[in-house]
């Protein structure tokens, strides 16, 4: 269920990108919206491959898609098709080794979708409107990393203002300025 909520939110944001908006910058310094979309599409495709038994790659393949929305929908459908048939007890590869499928979906995979939904919303200058339960799950997963950044995946944490909401605290922990 959490996977669907996260996929739905990213899709809502992705389909809101105007035709002339793909080159807008995102909070990810090296990426325009088209690059961010390509990354998340690659993550969704990877999720499908992991469910099918693939090993976790050392580096992902990311490309800009000619039609990001169509590529997203194809990748999402492919993932949802294999998840519908998957045994939840199956162990799959993840960045930390082999874990039960639900663990991979609620940690690594969810983190990618939630954080990059925030990035996309920020680039589009709209409220992120992230599900609070998903924000808490991602926070529970990344907090043990200590906010020190992770090998080019996340930047070191930035200070959260007193009274910052959960989403702001999470993205600050992951090196984004909210």
From TrEMBL:
Q: Which domain of life is it from?
A: Bacteria
Q: List, alphabetically, the InterPro entries matched.
A: CHP03086 (IPR017520), DinB/YfiT-like (IPR034660), Maleyloyr_isom (IPR017517), MDMPI_metal-binding (IPR024344)
**Which segments constitute the Mycothiol-dependent maleylpyruvate isomerase metal-binding domain?**
6-121
Q: What is this protein called?
A: Uncharacterized protein (TIGR03086 family)
Q: What is the lineage of its organism?
A: Bacteria, Bacillati, Actinomycetota, Actinomycetes, Pseudonocardiales
């Amino acid at each position: 269920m959490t996977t669907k909520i996260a996929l739905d939110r990213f899709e809502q944001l992705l389909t809101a990108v105007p035709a002339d908006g793909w080159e807008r910058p995102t909070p990810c310094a090296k990426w325009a919206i088209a690059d961010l979309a390509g990354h998340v599409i690659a993550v969704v495709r990877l999720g499908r491959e992991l469910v099918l038994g693939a090993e976790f790659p050392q580096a992902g393949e990311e490309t800009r898609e000619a039609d990001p929305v169509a590529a997203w929908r194809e990748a999402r459908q492919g993932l949802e098709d294999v998840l519908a048939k998957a045994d939840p007890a199956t162990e799959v590869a993840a960045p930390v080794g082999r874990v039960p499928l639900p663990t991979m979906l609620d940690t690594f995979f969810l983190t990618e979708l939630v954080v990059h939904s925030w990035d996309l919303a920020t680039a589009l200058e709209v409220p992120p409107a992230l599900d609070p339960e998903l924000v808490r799950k991602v926070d529970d997963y990344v907090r043990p990393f200590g906010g020190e950044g992770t090998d080019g995946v996340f930047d070191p944490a930035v200070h959260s203002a007193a009274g910052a909401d959960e989403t702001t605290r999470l993205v600050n922990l992951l090196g984004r300025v909210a």
